[in-house]
Specification:
The complex is a heterodimer of chains A (94) and B (250). Chain A has 94 residues and is of the alpha+beta class. Chain A has one domain: Ubiquitin-like (UB roll), CATH 3.10.20.520. Chain A contains 2 helices and 3 strands, in the order ββαβα. Classes of the chains: A alpha+beta (94), B mainly alpha (250). Chains A and B meet through helix 1 of A and helix 2 and helix 5 of B.
């Protein structure tokens, strides 16, 4: 695998107003090539309005073995969910 | 086939058709997944352009043929593509260099044709331009990266360029039809594009570190239908099904 080009993560925004979503990854030597490859690989079916490419090595990920201390404390705090209110009928979506 | 508009439409359509067929052979075989998909995309774009140009040729001819019959039932001497696009794929360096030289010519040609006095020529060209601008950008950036890459990648790209160069001149060969089209302001003289395209290649070569050959000895004859033997093999494969089972459909 020593000959492989650096890995990049690709994020695409499908519609105005929505957020960029992670769609996958690809190999490229630099940002320009990553952008071209992202266009070719991930927007063939008119999926995108905007593309972000990020070097995978620049992404800081949480460590799976530390998921206890990170996520367990929020498990028993149901009062943080907005589920104790009656939503007026006029509000269709929340 | 005496109308000069047919000559232009075939020249444009056959170049795109043959290169599309050639590139499509890489589908599933390119060195990386990204290039595989990108090459297939380019092939499909070119196929779309070929369809528009050949449909246009068939309409002007008005003898009951269509884009499919022109693609599948003509013989080598009736094809008007340049000698460059019929060169064998060989390897990825040759395929990419062939695409790069084609794109450099194609973009300049379409920019001029989109100003044509012939509205249909102008419309087809404007439609194709959207995709061809990107083709040029893509092959240009790859050639610059590989030319200015490792010693190995540089040598491979330079060898491919040297091997293809004498066939490149095939795009710039003039004919009587071209003179008539030029007088009607339908299309530029093919030879007049050479300085413009060469300037583009020279600009790129500063970054790619590739040496553009100085020779202007060109392989000629494609505008009269004189092709290299490889076109026969390409057509045999491309036309086989329709020739064996005429008018069969998916």
């Amino acid at each position: 695998m020593a000959n492989e080009l650096p890995l990049w993560e690709v994020f695409i925004r499908g519609q105005h107003g929505t957020a960029h979503r992670h769609v996958g990854s690809l190999h490229a030597t630099d940002a320009e090539m990553a952008m071209n490859n992202a266009r070719d690989v991930y927007t063939r079916r008119n999926e995108g309005l905007s593309i972000w490419v990020v070097p995978s090595s620049e992404i800081v990920a949480s460590i799976p073995s530390k998921k206890g201390p990170l996520f367990d404390p929020s498990k028993d705090k149901i009062y943080r969910h907005p589920s104790f209110y009656n939503i007026p009928v006029e509000v269709k979506k929340i | 086939m005496s109308n000069p508009r047919i000559h232009l439409a075939l020249r444009m359509g056959d170049n795109s058709l043959i290169l599309s067929q050639q590139n499509s052979k890489w589908c599933g075989h390119a060195p990386t997944l990204e290039e595989d998909i990108a090459l297939a995309n380019v092939s499909l774009d070119l196929m779309g352009h070929a369809q528009m140009w050949l449909e246009f040729a068939a309409e002007v001819e008005d003898e009951g043929r269509n884009a499919d019959t022109l693609a599948f039932f003509r013989d080598t001497e009736e094809f008007r593509n340049s000698l460059l696009v019929e060169r064998p794929n060989v390897d990825f360096a040759t395929t990419l260099m062939r695409q790069y030289l084609f794109d450099a010519w194609h973009l300049e040609q379409l920019l001029l044709l989109s100003q044509s006095s012939d509205t249909l020529v102008a419309e087809i060209s404007q439609k194709a331009l959207v995709e061809v601008r990107y083709h040029r950008e893509r092959s240009q950036s790859l050639v610059i990266r590989l030319g200015d890459g490792t010693i190995d990648s540089h040598n491979r790209m330079q060898e491919a360029l040297n091997a293809l160069w004498s066939y490149f001149g095939s795009f710039f060969e003039d004919s009587k039809d071209d003179e008539m089209l030029f007088d009607l302001q339908t299309s530029p003289m093919p030879s007049s594009l050479y300085p413009r395209v060469l300037e583009q290649l020279n600009q790129d070569s500063v970054l790619s570190t590739l040496k553009i050959p100085e020779s202007e000895f060109w392989q000629k004859g494609a505008v009269q239908g004189h092709h290299t033997e490889n076109l026969g093999y390409i057509l045999a494969e491309m036309q086989y099904l329709q020739r064996t089972y005429p008018n069969s459909k998916w």
